[in-house]
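debug: dumping io for the single-chain case to check the tokenizer round-trip. Nothing else runs in this session.
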Amino acid sequence: MQRMGVVLKTATEAQMESALVEAMNKDLPLAVKHLHRMSHGNLETGGYVRGNEDPNSELGKQLIRICASTILRELAEKHFCHGQTISFVNCCGPIVGPKKPTPLELMKLQIAMQDGTIAHADC
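debug: decoded output
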């Protein structure tokens, strides 16, 4: 924020949001682009689009950072996913959809994404 001339103590909510969005674009470009593409796939199909990335890949590492932060996830939904929701079955398994999946839907997705093995569930 200092780079943008914004002081945390006096920054407005809009300034802080803008600073975080700029930081996401700079520091998490692969994840931002990936989630944006997923949201377009969702808008075309009207359903959920899901992914399962390797947690050791650069994309996986960036998705983990978004998954681990409530505010980054909310900002990604607002700024990069056209208001679509983001859920994570595991740290690298984003699901973009028109609404949050129900707990039953998430359990089914978790089982399907593990496909009989613990597929990156320990990341």
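debug: round-trip ok. The radius of gyration is 15 Å.
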